[in-house]
Amino acid sequence: MTEPGTLSDTELDGAAARLGGAPAGELIAWALDRFAPERRVVVTGLQAEGVAVADMAIALDPGVRVLTIDTGRLPEATLRYLDMLRAHWGRNLEVIHPNGAELDLFSSEHGANPFRESAELRLECCHIRKVAPLERALRDVDCWMSGLRRAQSDGRAGTASIERDPRHRDIVKLNPLAAWSDDEVSAYLRGHHVPEHPLYALGYRSIGCDPCTRPVAAGEPVRAGRWWWEDGVDKECGIHATPRQLAVGGR
Fold first, then answer.
1. How far apart are CA 45 and CA 4, in angstroms?
2. Virtual CA dihedral for 223, 227, 233, 235, nearest 10 degrees?
3. Three-class SS state of 212
4. Residue 34's CB: how many other CB atoms inside 10 A?
5. Is the pLDDT of residue 231 over 90?
6. Helix, strand, or coil (residue 238)
7. CB atoms within 10 A of CB 136
8. Which segments of 138-223 does DSSP mark as H helices, in order?
9. Which segments of 103-245 are extended strands (E)?
10. What is the pLDDT of residue 1?
11. Range of lowest pLDDT (66-80, 96-110, 125-139, 218-232)
12. Which of the following is catalytic: 125, 143, 209, 237?
């Protein structure tokens, strides 16, 4: 393994030039070799893409760090799925949680379900439950790998396979499946006998917290089932992008 640590812009540009169009497995293998084991991590919300990335990484390094966030409001099916993956891979996964004091204060001030009252409160809830825990988890990490794909939404259409992450200290962010389609992700999981999240069979296409996720109707965008009551706000929680206020205006 080469020396661990953050990459210079020159090295990052070189890696992007060499590997930007490489197969997902090659991208992951590069990250596993380039960064120290304790300073690289796969982050997955237990959706198909992130699980596929985790499976590829585990095949290359059975001890690779794999992390997920338990927001405290996940569907019961997601919690069961987490245990299914533990059994399938025969190993533990890192589970992180929101800061209890922050959550107590937010709930005390705004109630149990304030996220439908305004986009601002929804984003604050997402920040406490998702964004802030990940920020804390990535403080001592030089590279993280995600399941982000260009086909997931218009806002993700420019996703690069290798990029610097300004939201997290400019560390390296790897999106090995950036160019993959829905069918390619599903085919990978089937071909490698990786169990799929049970909610996909019920019409869900993007799965987050239970109160904020619903199945998607035929013809609707992939992420239409997330925060469906909002108009004019990006379908983002803040982990991958700052949600933009669109022309229609938020509710």
1. 26
2. -30
3. helix
4. 19
5. no
6. coil
7. 12
8. 182-191
9. 143-145, 162-165, 171-174
10. 39
11. 218-232
12. 237
Q: Characterize the bridge pairing of strands 94-96 and 143-145.
A: unpaired
Residue bearing the bigger pLDDT, 3 or 216: 216
pLDDT (tens digit per residue) in 101-143: 999 999 999 999 999 999 899 999 999 999 999 999 999 999 9
Catalytic residue status for 126: no
Question: For residue 49, which of 155, 151, 163, 149 has the smallest C-alpha distance?
Answer: 149
* CA atoms of 206 and 213, how far apart (whole Å): 8
Contact 238, 130 (CB under 8 A): yes
Per-residue pLDDT of 6-60, as tens digits, reads 789 999 999 999 998 899 999 999 999 999 999 999 999 999 999 999 999 999 9
DSSP per residue over 31-86, as a string?
A: HHHHS-GGGEEEE--SSHHHHHHHHHHHHH-TT--EEEE--S---HHHHHHHHHHH
User: Locate tokens 């927001």: which residue?
Assistant: 71
